[in-house]
Write a structure and sequence with these properties.
The protein is α/β, with parallel strands linked by helices. It has 18 helices and 13 strands.
Length: 385
């Protein structure tokens, strides 16, 4: 008797989700070599063997203006997927992050009897706690990247598994600083500061001036400092270079890199990081940091009213305390950021303490994420064992 192939539908909306999805597909194929993978994703998921129905870029928009501009296209794609997978039901659906898109699709498919797994918990712990009811209606099982997330779902009666964070699996427990400096052609000695102003164009538009002005103030007080600025695209590099020209800061001792964020962080003595996943990458590479962010005043006022947590950076959330400085919104001034970074460069005892704390986080988050996530999917497929 011929065993029917399993059909697994997935939707990822950003580059980070594409990487998660690719690792998950590879882990599942070890146990289900004949499974069919289909959905929305990027080049990594496609290379891993998924049939791409719509390219990931159609969903990768950020900010209210961009979402409104592409609203009809995004809603149209979701309707097409809902109709397709309601008529030809997959054995399981996996929504990878992108909660604004995926939760509504998951809810519709769950009503049709399709098991729905959401990979990467929405940040209900940060400021959108009201989502928990919607999640309960949409999700058969939540895959949580952080240990503090599972108890929130347990309390709400939503099945959840802590699977760890894939970056902790990929990044070494002991980064090689000398090798990173050699790769980037930096001197073995001398202060190096990494500047990570964000990966999206909208973030650069908000943050580039602040980062350049901070670097200028640091260079005035420490002329020996070298700055590294890893940027992910030609567009973000152009925005940053335009800022350097406009602020007449082209003479700063600064190297702009295409990618190489992990190398820049491994090589540096301290980093200025826009809040987001980059703060976790910095912690996993055991580097002292100052976290900063600026956003539109209206959005900030909404977040402050929610008041779920006193901090925004992942290292502080994981530690449950202000482990590293956060200078957000009206506190995000070049003078404040420069002083905080110079303090980190000078205080070796603080640096050592941070390295020890970050090493503990790394070990906690290193869980062989893809294999754990695949195990949950297999359970829902009835194929475990």
């Amino acid at each position: 008797m011929e065993v029917q192939k399993k059909k697994i539908a997935l939707v990822a909306g950003e580059a980070s989700g594409d990487l998660l999805g690719a690792h998950l597909i590879e882990a599942l194929k070890k146990r289900l070599p004949d499974a069919e993978f289909v959905g929305v994703g990027g080049p990594k998921m496609e290379s891993a063997g998924m049939k791409v129905l719509f390219p990931m870029e159609t969903l990768a928009v950020w900010g209210y203006v961009e979402v409104l501009r592409h609203y009809r296209e995004i809603v149209g794609i979701r309707k097409q997927l809902r109709r397709l997978w309601s008529a030809e039901r997959p054995d399981v659906f996996i929504g990878i992050d992108a909660p604004d898109f995926n939760l509504a699709l998951e809810r519709a498919l769950k009503k049709k009897g399709v098991p729905t797994i959401h990979y990467v918990s929405p940040s209900i712990w940060a400021w959108r706690g009201e989502r928990i009811r919607h999640i309960a209606q949409s999700v058969s099982h939540m895959l949580a990247l952080f240990p503090f997330e599972k108890p929130l779902y347990d309390e709400a009666g939503i099945p959840a598994t802590y699977v760890g964070h894939p970056l902790a699996d990929v990044l070494p427990l002991e980064p090689n600083r000398e090798a990173a400096r050699e790769l980037l052609k930096l001197p073995k000695e001398g202060a190096v500061v990494a500047l990570l102003p964000g990966s999206r164009q909208s973030e650069l538009q908000s943050m580039a001036d602040l980062f350049v002005q901070t670097a200028r103030r640091m260079a005035e007080r420490r002329p020996d400092i070298q700055f590294l600025v890893p940027l992910v695209s030609r567009e973000t590099r152009t925005l940053f270079e335009e800022t350097l020209y406009r602020l007449d800061a082209r003479n700063l001792p600064m190297t702009i890199l295409f990618g190489h964020a992990h190398d820049a962080l491994a090589a540096c003595d301290a980093a200025l990081v826009a809040s987001g996943t980059a703060t976790l990458e910095t912690a996993l590479l055991k580097r002292p940091m100052v976290i900063t962010y600026k956003m539109p005043a209206l959005i900030w006022s909404i977040i402050k009213r929610k008041n779920y947590l006193p901090y925004v950076g992942l290292p502080n959330i994981l530690a449950g305390r202000f482990l590293v400085p956060e200078l957000i919104q009206e506190d995000a001034l070049p003078e404040n950021l420069a002083q905080a970074l110079l303090n980190l460069l000078q205080d070796k005892a603080v640096t050592k303490g941070l390295e020890e704390a970050f090493s503990g986080m790394h070990r906690q988050l290193r869980q062989n994420t893809a294999e754990k996530a695949a195990g949950v999917v297999l359970d829902h497929l009835g194929a475990a064992g």
